[in-house]
Write a structure and sequence with these properties.
Number of strands: 0
Helix content: over 70%
Strand content: under 5%
CATH topology of the largest domain: MetI-like fold
CATH architecture of the largest domain: Orthogonal Bundle
Distance between the termini: 42 Å
Shape: globular
CATH class of the largest domain: Mainly Alpha
Length: 289
């Protein structure tokens, strides 16, 4: 027996169907954000507890969280003073470090991404350059500082040179992997539509490789921010690394611990920035949205 259906002319407004879905997605995102904040707060609470226990065990040799946070508040309250070459506020010191990091990182990325594309796209280039990368990659970042100092005769430029060298390798390797892992189906489609090399690069290779490139840049930025502190301890002058070394020479461990908190906080912000950038190229996540 055939089923008979009657259309009585009632239609649901398009917005009425999407509203519950939108509200549910918004609720899920809010819940996820709240859970993330809760876990983050719990992690920091555990860190402060361990720090307090270690400080108590060390006696007066290691400042605890309370004096370090009090000193951090004092530093941030007067962060922009400038009383000469060796006496500047922590914001000025931090700004100098960030300028060097971004300069070296930008130069390193400008070299690493094209080289990684060549290595991933051309087997001959990969076989020639990969041994060089693998030999130079394990070299300690500070080992490059005397080379930069001899080449540029400037401690500041040598510091940027160290950042350039050490930020190359993660971006090169991740870019090469991304370019080399383009699926054969994508290549076949490009061949069918007779893409030129430039169009193939822009429409197929780079979109597929972008998540890997962003990952390499994220790792490179983390290494650059870690290395800048040690490099500035050697170069002197100004910067957050010089601030740490100068505070240690003044026997002010509370300033050292405060600077460590600042360094960690800035590193967290830089990493979160690249995480947001990576989300723009997370095609799988966008497809589920």
């Amino acid at each position: 027996m055939n089923e008979v259906r009657y259309d009585i002319g009632i239609r649901t407004a398009p917005g009425a169907r999407r509203l519950p879905r939108f509200g549910g997605a918004l609720w899920q995102r809010g819940r996820g954000l709240a859970e993330s904040l809760a876990f983050t707060a719990a992690g920091f609470a555990v860190l402060l507890l361990v720090w307090a226990l270690l400080a108590g065990a060390a006696g007066h040799d290691l400042p605890g969280p309370t004096p370090a946070l009090r000193q951090l508040w004092t530093l941030l309250g007067n962060a922009f003073y400038d009383r000469g070459p060796n006496d500047k506020g922590v914001a000025i010191q931090l700004g100098g470090s960030l300028r060097r990091v971004f300069a070296g990182f930008a130069i390193g990325a400008a070299v690493a991404i094209p080289l990684g594309v060549l290595m991933g796209a051309n087997g001959t280039v990969r076989r020639v350059t990969d041994p060089i990368v693998q030999v130079l990659r394990p070299v300690s970042p500070l080992a490059w500082f005397p080379i930069g100092l001899a080449a540029f005769r400037s401690a500041g430029t040598a510091t940027v040179f160290v950042i350039v060298i050490t930020s190359l390798w993660p971006t090169i390797l991740n870019t090469a992997f991304g370019v080399g892992s383009v699926p054969q189906d994508h290549k076949n489609v490009a061949r069918v539509f007779k893409f030129s090399r430039g169009k193939y690069l822009m429409r197929v290779v780079l979109p597929h490789s972008m998540p890997h490139i962003i990952t390499g840049l994220r790792l490179s930025m983390g290494i650059a921010w870690m290395v800048i502190v040690a490099a500035e301890m050697l170069s002197g002058g100004n910067g957050i690394g010089f601030f740490v070394w100068d505070s240690w020479n003044a026997l002010s461990l509370t300033k050292v611990m405060s600077a460590i908190l600042i360094i960690g906080g800035v590193g967290l912000l830089l990493d979160r920035g690249f995480s947001l950038l990576a989300g723009l190229f997370d095609y799988a996540q966008q497809g589920r949205a």
